[in-house]
Write a structure and sequence with these properties.
- Residues 293-331 are annotated as: Disordered.
- Residues 303-331 have a biased composition (Basic and acidic residues).
- This is AAA family ATPase.
- By secondary structure, this protein is α/β, with parallel strands linked by helices.
- It has two domains: 9-81 and 118-194, 3-Layer(aba) Sandwich (Rossmann fold); 200-306.
- The protein is built from 16 helices and nine strands.
- The longest helix has 25 residues, at 306-330.
- It binds adenosine-5'-diphosphate (ADP) and magnesium ion.
- Adenosine-5'-diphosphate binds at residues 20-23, 45, 47-53, 198, 206, 210, 239-241, 244.
- Magnesium ion is lined by residues 51-52, 134, 175.
Length: 331
Amino acid sequence: MTTPRFGGPSELAAALDEVGYLPDTGLAAAAFLAQRLRRPLFLEGDPGVGKTAFARAMADVLEAELIRLQCHGGIDATQALYDWNFPRQILELRAAGESAGVTPDVTSLYTREFLVRRPILKAVETSPSVLLVDEIDRADDEFEALLLEVFENNSVSIPELGTISGATPPLVVLTSNRTREVHDALKRRCLYHWIDHPDLSREVEILRRRVEGLPDELAGQVAAAMRRLRAANLVKPPGVAEAIDLARAAVELGERSLTDTLADAALGTVAKHHDDRAEVRRLLAPAPLAASSFAADPDLPDLPDRADRADRADRADRADHDGHEAGRGRA
Ligand SMILES: Nc1ncnc2c1ncn2[C@@H]1O[C@H](COP(=O)(O)OP(=O)(O)O)[C@@H](O)[C@H]1O
Ligand SMILES: [Mg+2]
């Protein structure tokens, strides 16, 4: 099977657009080059800016299989690369022992038949494929060394079996929500792109695509509200996902504009932290005077300093965590 080839970033952007993903121009260029230069693409950005969705859309346009590795604390090679099917190996041993009365050669237990393929090995063996290494910032930093080794050789080596590689290496997309800094060594291997929140017109366009039956005026109001919310000093600023949820809620509730009624009913689609509720409610449907300037909104203040927001989110997460711990202690 041959994957489609794109003449340039704008051709790729048009193809992504066709499958419902609207990239900014920098992302389309980075993605085009990552594919051509066969380099992993490292995407960083706030939660909800479309990192995971981008990898899905790339798989669609490349007519490739999407293989996802969700990272988490403690993830290791047996979850990312491959493992051995231990229960089956034991059964095989027993069966052989019973029938012949002799212990079989253990090397016969380390063949492809007993191999459990985890996402990276699967991606290396599947052509064409897009390997999404999602939320790498959640993994421990030793895990990055393991990835580096795989990307260096585009193969997985298994001592018992040898080196496994496929016809075409997968397009690798790594994402990070930047809860910690990822090592330079890994970044150096990749093409890097920071995904920002979409500007007003692109967010309106995304909403139109993703939310059926959304009135144009409401799309503009929701996108404008997102700008106000992201400019405020919230613990959890909303991403595109929240904008889509709010718009879908409006359609379900039969609301045609962003009124107090909608803000009250759909607050939970946008306010994702207890401390943010009052501010989100206030900014979703501001007093009528401000509401008349929804569409233009030329002079919004700059986004608050990232470090400050990260610090607030961090403190809030710790408070959440302590709360859970305390809850467990009582149980
Ligand atoms: N540029 C975009 N074009 C189309 N949909 C988008 C875009 N950016 C975000 N979305 C939508 O917003 C939602 C959140 O995106 P997601 O990829 O989960 O964010 P992230 O992985 O960065 O946290 C998804 O439903 C996605 O489809
Ligand atoms: Mg994601």
